[in-house]
Specification:
single chain; alpha/beta; 12% strand; 4-stranded mixed sheet; 6 helices
């Protein structure tokens, strides 16, 4: 700050105070949106759990059960559905999930279906094939869109367009911890379905209208839609938590800078007063 006038320091203090007001307001908005996002995560779980328990019941009660959704084949082409945000100012929320997907698809023949403007821009800049940019605005994607996507991906898997399908999202652990993760959607793992319910009490035998394989085939797209909606809710909660933490840090940094500038302002003013007194004494 050597050579900087008190007026310039005062202007910088005003600028930092304005920045602090903005970051504080963004922190409060993110906290409000986070509460709604956490409620969505909680409300989305019962539907998913009922479908999942039905799939477990079918696979456990049919030893010779088979489904095209569980058929594994040589992996030639991979699909990644990636959930990111529309805006920045959220710490490492966007960069962490995009770096994870980039490392996972490296060296593979992969196509991505991005949700969120940041994901669309990232994959375009890397020249990675994009299935569609229809969902470039993550804020407008709802539960109906998730089921439309799941049905589209289910048909593509059955047609052999993709051999493996994954969803990449940010898992909400706590207010201070959000972890990027990827989950395989298709093909389904029979062992995973059976072991996941191994400790659960045996359910009574259920008679399905149509055979169990038909019921299973009808449930899978709905089940995948539930997973996608859950991943979307988790990502939204993670984004707001990350933005709240980032804005809180920015506010604290602004406070520190204001304190530092105020100290330098006082020193500069004191030096100016001392110089004036010295000049008056010397003149007299």
């Amino acid at each position: 700050m050597a050579g900087v006038s008190t007026k310039e320091i005062k202007n910088r203090i005003r600028s930092m105070e304005s920045t602090k007001q903005i970051t504080k307001a963004m922190e409060m908005v993110a906290a409000s949106k986070l509460r709604r996002a956490q409620a969505q995560v909680t409300n989305s779980r019962p539907y998913f759990e009922i479908l999942y328990s039905t799939m477990q019941d079918i696979t456990r009660s049919n030893r010779d059960f088979s489904s095209p959704y569980m058929k594994e084949r040589p992996v030639n082409k991979v699909m990644y559905l990636v959930v990111a945000g529309d805006r920045g100012l959220a710490g490492g929320y966007n960069s962490n999930i995009l770096k994870l997907v980039q490392s996972n698809i490296q060296g593979k023949d992969a196509v991505v279906l991005p949700i969120g403007k940041k994901a669309v821009d990232f994959f375009r800049s890397k020249n990675i094939p994009i299935l569609t940019d229809q969902y470039a605005e993550a804020a407008s994607v709802g539960i109906g869109d998730c089921f439309s996507i799941s049905k589209q991906l289910s048909r593509a898997f059955l047609a052999g367009e993709f051999d493996e399908i994954y969803v990449a999202y940010t898992s909400f652990v706590s207010m201070l911890s959000q972890v990027p993760a990827s989950m395989q959607l298709l093909p389904l793992k029979k062992q995973a379905l059976q072991s996941a319910g191994a400790d659960a009490p045996r359910r009574c035998d259920t008679i399905y209208e149509g055979d169990s394989e038909e019921v299973f085939a009808a449930i899978v797209p709905e089940y995948l839609g539930g997973i996608l909606y859950g991943a979307l809710c988790e990502s939204r909660a993670s984004e707001q938590a990350a933005r709240r933490s980032a804005m809180d840090s920015a506010t604290k940094n602004a406070d520190e800078m204001i304190s530092d500038l105020s100290l330098k302002f006082n020193r500069a003013r004191q030096a100016a007063i001392t110089q004036e007194i010295t000049e008056i004494v010397a003149g007299s």
